[in-house]
Design brief:
With 175 residues, the chain is an all-alpha fold. Among the domains are: 26-69; 93-121. Helices cover 70% and strands 0% of the residues. It has helices at 26-47, 56-69, 80-89, 94-132, 138-174. α1 (26-47) crosses α2 (56-69). The longest helix has 39 residues, at 94-132. The two termini are 58 Å apart. The model is unreliable at 1-9 (pLDDT under 50).
Amino acid sequence: MNAPDNSTPDHDPPVGPIGPAGWRSPGALRLEAEWQAQERARAQERQGLPLDRADSRLAEYRLIARALRTPAMEPVPYDLAAQIVRHVEGTPAVGELLERWLLRGLGVVFAFAALVAVATYGEQWGPAFAALWPKLSPQSADWTGLVIGCLAMSLAWQGVARLMRHDVSAMTGAA
C-alpha cells in the first residue's frame, strides 16, 4: 500500500499561522498576497499578455519570470577542459609576446641603471656603510657570545627533539 503524498506542490500558496478565531496574521496575509502576485505574473508571462503599467509589482515579477525562463548563458562545451589545455599549451598571443619582450627590456634597463649608479656613486657608499656599523666594546663581545650560545643550544635541542620523534616513529612503525 502506498501512503498518501502530503507534500504540497510548488504552485500552492504558503499557509501562515491561523489564529484562534480563524484569522491570519498580517505577515501571513502579506506573504499570501505576494505569492498570488507572483503566480499571476507567471501566468500572464506564460500567456504572453501585455504588461500592465498600473501594477509595477506585477511588472517586476513578470520580468523576473521572463529572466528565469530564458537561459542566462550558453551551455558549457563538453570538452571545455581540453580546449583550455590546448589554449594554454599553444603558442602565446601577440599581446602576450609583446608583454614578455617589454618586461625583459625593462629588466635590462633597470640592471643597466643599477650598474651606472654603482659605478658613479660606489666610492661614496663604502664610508657611508662603514658609518652604519656600531662601535664594538669589550662588553659587546660578551653579549655576542651569549646570544650565539643561546642560538646554538636552541638548535641543538631542536635536533635532539627531531631525533627522538624519529626514533619513536621508527619503533611504532616496526611493532
